[in-house]
Amino acid sequence: MSGMQDLREVLAVDRVSVSFAGHSVLRDVDFKLHAGEFCGLIGANGSGKTTLLRTILGFQKAAGGGVRINGQSGLGSLGYVPQKIMLDAYLPLRGRDMVALGLDGHRLGLPMPSKKRRASVDEMLEAVDAEHFADRRIGELSGGQQQRILIAHALIRRPRLLLLDEPLANLDIGSVASIVTLLRRLSIEQGITILLSAHDMNPLLPVMDSIVYLAHGRAVSGPADEVVRSKVLTQLYGYHIDVIRVHGRVLVIAADSADEIRAAREREPAHAVQVP
Predict the structure, then answer these.
(1) Looking at the chain, which runs of residues are DSSP E strands?
(2) pTM of full prediction above 0.70
(3) At what angle do helices 95-104 and 143-155 cross, to 10 degrees?
(4) How far separated are the first and last CA of the chain, in Å rounded?
(5) pLDDT tens-place string over residues 80-108
(6) Using CB atoms within 10 A of its CB, is residue 82 exposed (0-12), middle (13-18) or buried (19+)?
(7) How do residues 206-257 score in pLDDT, each as one tens digit?
(8) Hey, which of 19, 47, 100, 185 would disulfide with 214, CB 3.0 to 4.6 Å?
């Protein structure tokens, strides 16, 4: 993880609240991200992560508060990788075609081929290390390869802010590590601000500058080592939470579960547990 050098505000979520049918989904969520910052949006399923991303995108209207991107209301310079895209293996669309759609897929009619367009696509494919499979049908690619193509698709118009909704879900361990490393490199090399949602923070711990932790529609934000603490998360959840660090991973669990884990660890041979 590298420290931020550019303090320009790219995203400001200002006390955002969202309700569905009278039920509060988000309550006074408040945080800011700066240029080149890599932020993990962490929370369990149903905690409001996708709703928050949809609100930032303008797909969901806030009941209170607001969102500014690059100091202005509205979408601004923004890229987005959605949570689920179903891709037919027989769809006659190559990886490079999907990336090119990020340039002009919103326009009516067939795009006109040009050297400039192809050069832009080739440059972005190289940036995400996808050149060697770019001419294969996108539905035939592995999950990790598809994610690289979707990231290139989202970045080809050079946004300053990239939102990713659970991009690590259903990927194998190797693909998770390579996608996280790729995103960190892109944020450094291109100065992109990244907000990535996930239910597991552990793959992001080595690279993220900050964390927005969601629980029951409320959020706490800041550096991970300041946020992911028992006292802070107990206040967020409204009941006692233990933070356990074991084998280089962080476990956030309710107190009863923590007691069970401690008892199990005490029953293990001494050499079996290594706590950093």
Answers:
(1) 9-20, 23-34, 38-42, 64-69, 78-81, 161-165, 193-198, 210-215, 218-222, 241-246, 249-254
(2) yes
(3) 20
(4) 18
(5) 999 877 777 777 889 999 999 988 655 43
(6) middle
(7) 999 999 999 999 999 999 999 999 999 999 998 999 999 988 899 998 866 5
(8) 47
Which distant-in-sequence residues (6+ apart) come within 8 Å of 72 by Cβ? none
What is the amino acid identity at position 186? L
Which pLDDT score is estimated for 248?
A: 82
Res 139: pLDDT? 87
How much is the pLDDT for 182? Answer: 96
Starting from the edge strand earliest in sequence, which strands make up the sheet with 9-20, in order? 23-34, 9-20, 64-69
Q: Coil, helix or strand for 198?
A: strand
Q: Can you read off the two tokens belonging to residue 116?
A: 């400039």
- For the record, the structure tokens of 161 come out as 């802010």
Q: Return mean pLDDT, the chain.
A: 86
Bridge partners for 219 per DSSP: 214
The half-sphere exposure of 154 on its side-chain side, counting CA atoms within 13 A, is: 24
Residues of the chain with pLDDT under 70: 1-6, 72-76, 104-113, 255-276
Residue 246's DSSP bridge partners are 249
> Letter for the amino acid at 183?
L
Map out the domains of the chain with their CATH numbers.
1-77+159-228 (3.40.50.300), 87-157 (no CATH), 230-276 (no CATH)
207, two tokens: 């690279």
Q: How far apart are CA 146 and CA 127, in angstroms?
A: 14
d(CA 259, CA 42): 24
